[in-house]
C-alpha cells in the first residue's frame, strides 16, 4: 500500500545582523534545490524573511539544518510550520538580496535610524488573548496589514458586560506596507492612539517590528504600544477555533487564506470546531446595494458576478468602483508582500 505524502510550509523571519548577505543568498540558492525544496526568501543586512515548502518531513529537517549550518542567522528563528497540499507548494526557488526584511521607509538613513530604536514589547498569544478579554476603555487594536487582508479577517472584540465597549480597531486601509508611515503622519490618525494602550498585529509579526517602533517614536513620551508575538499565525495555533479573530487570515503563499485548523496537523485539526463565518464581501455586489460573502482569494468567480475575483476585492483602499452589476473593474495588482 502506497503511503500518502504529507506536504508542508514554513514561514519565518528574524531580525539579526548578517555580516555577509551574499554568502547567505548563495548558500540558500544552492542548498534549497539540492534538498528538493521550494522557497521565497529575502535576505538583508538586518535579517531574513520568507517561506519554504516541500515534503513536510523535509521541511522540518531543513529548519533543524538551518539552525546548525547557518546558526549565525537562524539559531533563534521562530519557524512557523503548517501543512499544505501538493498543489499549494511554491514553484522553484527564489532567494534575493534586499535592503530590508520588510520595507517601511524609502530613505536608507531614516530606516537605519528607525532600526536602531527599541521595538514595542511582545505579548504571547495567551497574554494577548487575556488582555483583550479584560478589555478597558484605554485599549485600541491597530491592524498594520493591507486592506485586502483586513477585509477577510481581523480581530473583533465584543463589549464585556452591559457597561463595556467594543475595543476599537484601527485599519489604515493601505494597499502596501510602505503606506503605513503616511497614515501615521496624519495628525487626525495619530490622535486615535494618544493616551491609549495600542495592541498591534499583523500576519506573522515582521511588519509590526518596524511599524511599532515608528508608532512609538512618533507618539513619544510614555506611549504604550504592544505587538502580538508571532502574529495572527501563532494566535490561531493557540486558539484554532478563532478566539477573538474573525474570518480568515490572508497569506502570500499559494494557499491564499487559512483558518486555525489549517495550521494544525490533520489529527489535531479534526478535533477543532472552527468558526466558518465569512466576513469579506464582494465589492461588485456592494456597489449595487447587495451583499455577497466572499473570501476566495485566487482565480475564482462568484456565480452571477463576472468581476468577483481577487483583483476586485483588493483594488481600492478608499473608494469602491462605480459599476453596474456584472461589470468588471481594471484589476489592481498586488505585489508579493511580507508575512
TrEMBL record:
Which SMART domains does the record cross-reference, listed alphabetically? RHOD (SM00450)
InterPro entries attached to this UniProt entry: Rhodanese-like_dom, Rhodanese-like_dom_sf, TrhO, TRHO_N
Segment Disordered: which positions? 316-339
* Domain Rhodanese: start-end pairs: 135-244
Give the Basic and acidic residues compositional bias ranges.
323-339
One Pfam family per UniProt: Rhodanese
- PROSITE patterns (alphabetical): RHODANESE_3
- The protein's name is STR6 protein
Q: Which organism is it from?
A: Symbiodinium natans
Amino acid at each position: 500500500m502506497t503511503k500518502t505524502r504529507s506536504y508542508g510550509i514554513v514561514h519565518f523571519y528574524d531580525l539579526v545582523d548578517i555580516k555577509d548577505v551574499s554568502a547567505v543568498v548563495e548558500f540558500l540558492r544552492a542548498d534549497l534545490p539540492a534538498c528538493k525544496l521550494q522557497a521565497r526568501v529575502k535576505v538583508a543586512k538586518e535579517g531574513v524573511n520568507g517561506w519554504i515548502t516541500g515534503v513536510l518531513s523535509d521541511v522540518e529537517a531543513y529548519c533543524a539544518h538551518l539552525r546548525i549550518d547557518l546558526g549565525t542567522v537562524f539559531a533563534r528563528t521562530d519557524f512557523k510550520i503548517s501543512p499544505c497540499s501538493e498543489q499549494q507548494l511554491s514553484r522553484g526557488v527564489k532567494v534575493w538580496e534586499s535592503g530590508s526584511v520588510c520595507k517601511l521607509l524609502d530613505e536608507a538613513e531614516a530606516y537605519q535610524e528607525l532600526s536602531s530604536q527599541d521595538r514595542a514589547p511582545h505579548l504571547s498569544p495567551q497574554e494577548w488573548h487575556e488582555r483583550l478579554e479584560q478589555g478597558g476603555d484605554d485599549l485600541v487594536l491597530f491592524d498594520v496589514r493591507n486592506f485586502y487582508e483586513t477585509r477577510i479577517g481581523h480581530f473583533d472584540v465584543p463589549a464585556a458586560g452591559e457597561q463595556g465597549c467594543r475595543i476599537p480597531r484601527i485599519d489604515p486601509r493601505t494597499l502596501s506596507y510602505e503606506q503605513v508611515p503616511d497614515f501615521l503622519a496624519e495628525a487626525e490618525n495619530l490622535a486615535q492612539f494618544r493616551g491609549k494602550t495600542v495592541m498591534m498585529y499583523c500576519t506573522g509579526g515582521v511588519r509590526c517590528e518596524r511599524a511599532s517602533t515608528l508608532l512609538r517614536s512618533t507618539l513619544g513620551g510614555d506611549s504604550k504600544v504592544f505587538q502580538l508575538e508571532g502574529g495572527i499565525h501563532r494566535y490561531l495555533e493557540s486558539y484554532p477555533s478563532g478566539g477573538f479573530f474573525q474570518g480568515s487570515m490572508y497569506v502570500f503563499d499559494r494557499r491564499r487564506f487559512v483558518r486555525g485548523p489549517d495550521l494544525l496537523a490533520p489529527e489535531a485539526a479534526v478535533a477543532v470546531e472552527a468558526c466558518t463565518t465569512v466576513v469579506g464581501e464582494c465589492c461588485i455586489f456592494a456597489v449595487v446595494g447587495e451583499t455577497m460573502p466572499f473570501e476566495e482569494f485566487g482565480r475564482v468567480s462568484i456565480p452571477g458576478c463576472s468581476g468577483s475575483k481577487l483583483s476586485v476585492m483588493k483594488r481600492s483602499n478608499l473608494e469602491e468602483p462605480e459599476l453596474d452589476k456584472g461589470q468588471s473593474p481594471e484589476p489592481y495588482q498586488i505585489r508579493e508582500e511580507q508575512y
